[in-house]
Design brief:
The protein is mostly helical. The chain contains 13 helices and 2 strands; from the N terminus they run αααααααααααββαα. Strands 1-2 form a two-stranded antiparallel sheet. A hairpin with a 2-residue loop joins β1 and β2. α3 packs parallel to α6 and α4 runs parallel beside α7.
Length: about 425
């Protein structure tokens, strides 16, 4: 079948790619503009999800232009690149959209303990009233929380809608190219994507192990599973890449064995990533209660922070240790806290001390501050593992198709040699 015939049999898919990608290009441009707008509000907070959203929007704009051009000029090579790129971008958009909703639920506490930092990035219209009194600060926090949460939720919804739109592009491209044309490059190019995923997951895990011990201590099992699964994913990627390098007729038997190993390791990886996704989310939910239980007793996380200003709020411009702003985690010589009253392992702000009430965070907010980064990393690991499992399943299906063709080639090659003919080339 010629190249033109393949497209003539799927004209609806071709039209969908041309016009659908044109519409998606402008939708992605809108999402890019909104992402930049949200970034201007959140530049002093954790902006990782916003930056990824902006990057994914740029990627979608490039991919949609490529898809429309490839469909219009009937270029198989361009459409293959489009298929793999959009498949990856779909996962990125779904992960980002999910994390936007996760972050929206957490940003409220962030505003409570980083008030001045967040306020510095907000337009004056958010708090166009006096914010030097307790009432003014509370009203300003309420406004900022609502704005940030709405922005994150809208951006998350846009990312998910964009991912759904691009899913139709993937389906249309697959119909034009046929599955056989996609499977081989998917294993080779998909291997590179797997390595990138593994490196990112590994970096999150290592960062948590090295920098979040104060909040995690012995509660870091998910991070070690993430590091181990990253190593398994890299092995899987190398098996896929190596298997496709030996896919010529004379090495078909070796390639088939490598792809069998790919399928076995892939099955183990799917189970491992599924377990990691569940474990990361369970730990993300449990880490606050664990840290609360060990904040002033057990592992004594407050003391391990080694920062007398860590539990100071950011409500006023007066710096910790200046003026009336005390060192909230400071202790007496006997080891008891100066500005908190502790009983039965639970410490509360000393209500008889006006400066403590004004400048010190409640223990629950200080705990939330301690676990904020760790929770974000665990949510990212869990979400990425869940959605990446879908990508891995597609690669597994591709490996089944390629290995079937390789086995057929080996069988035909044996028959050809018995007849004295040269082995036929793999299609």
């Amino acid at each position: 079948m010629g190249k033109g015939q393949a497209f003539n049999s799927c004209s609806r898919a071709q039209l969908l790619l041309i016009f659908g990608n044109t519409i998606a290009f402008f939708v992605a441009g809108t999402l890019l503009g909104y992402g930049i707008y949200v970034f201007s509000y959140m530049r002093t907070t954790n902006t990782a999800v916003v930056i990824v959203c902006i990057g994914a929007s740029v990627g979608v704009m490039i991919a949609t232009a490529m898809g429309a051009w490839g469909a219009l000029l009937k270029k198989h090579g361009v459409l293959k690149v489009y298929f793999y790129t959009v498949l990856l971008l779909d996962i990125v958009l779904l992960v980002t959209g999910t994390l936007c909703y996760v972050r929206a639920a957490e940003v409220s506490d962030y505003v409570d303990y980083e008030f001045q930092t967040v306020k510095g990035a907000m337009p004056d219209s958010e708090c166009d009233f006096v914010t030097t009194t307790a009432g003014g600060i509370a009203a300003c926090k309420s406004n900022m929380k609502e704005t940030l949460q709405d922005n994150l939720r809208y951006m998350g919804a846009c990312c998910i809608v964009m991912a759904v739109m691009m899913l139709f592009g993937i389906i249309a491209a697959a119909r034009l190219l046929t599955w056989d044309r996609l499977t081989g490059p998917l294993l080779h190019g998909g291997g590179v994507v797997m390595i990138l995923f593994a490196i990112f997951n590994l970096s999150l895990a290592v960062d948590m192990i090295l920098n979040e011990q104060d909040a995690l201590q012995e509660d870091v099992w998910a991070t070690y599973v993430a590091a181990g699964s990253a190593a398994v994913v890299i092995i899987l990627a190398l098996l896929g890449i190596t298997g496709m390098r030996y896919s010529d007729p004379m090495s078909a038997s070796r390639a088939a064995c490598l792809l069998l190993g790919y399928q076995v390791v892939g099955f183990i990886t799917v189970i491992l990533l599924g377990y990691l996704a569940v474990l990361a989310y369970v730990q993300c939910g449990d880490i606050t209660s664990w840290t609360t239980d060990n904040f002033d007793t057990g592992n004594k996380i407050r003391s391990n922070l080694n920062d007398n200003c860590y539990c100071n709020n950011d409500d006023y411009t007066t710096a910790c240790g200046s003026g009336n702003n005390p060192y909230c985690n400071e202790k007496y010589a006997n080891g008891t806290l100066k500005y908190y009253i502790c009983s039965g392992g639970t410490c509360t702000v000393d209500s008889s001390n006006a400066y403590a009430l004004q400048y010190c965070l409640t223990t629950s907010l200080c705990v939330d501050k301690a676990v904020d980064s760790a929770q974000g990393s665990l949510a990212a690991i869990g979400t990425m593992s869940a959605f990446y499992t879908v990508y891995l399943l597609v690669c597994m299906l591709a490996s089944l198709n390629v290995r079937r063709k390789l086995v057929e080639t080996v069988e035909h090659g044996v028959e050809d040699r018995l007849r004295g003919e040269s082995p036929k080339t793999i299609v």
